[in-house]
Specification:
This protein is mainly alpha-helical. It is built from 5 helices and no strands.
């Protein structure tokens, strides 16, 4: 368990996501799959995979690993990138 100070520090350590990375992340989080997200954004599934991999690397770099979709969703909610209402 985190102390309040540790939790605040973790949330404060936000990765510097590009606008496109944020768009891909948000789209993937509300879609059923990376294929659907790719079609929605008019890009290939491989491009979605590349963006998601880079996003995960950026979260790892700030000490907030996000290996699963559910963890990335939690990070996006914590960082204000998406709201529960949008899901």
């Amino acid at each position: 368990m985190f102390t309040m100070k540790e939790e605040a520090a973790e949330i404060a350590a936000r990765p510097n996501l590009s606008a496109r990375e944020t768009e891909v992340l948000r789209t993937w989080l509300v879609c059923d799959s990376k294929d659907v997200a790719a079609r929605t954004l008019y890009i290939s599934p491989a491009t979605v995979n590349t963006h998601i991999a880079r996003i995960r690397e950026k979260y790892d770099a700030v000490g907030r690993p996000a290996a699963s979709k559910s963890t990335l969703l939690a990070r996006a909610l914590q960082d204000g990138l998406i709201t529960v209402e949008e899901l």
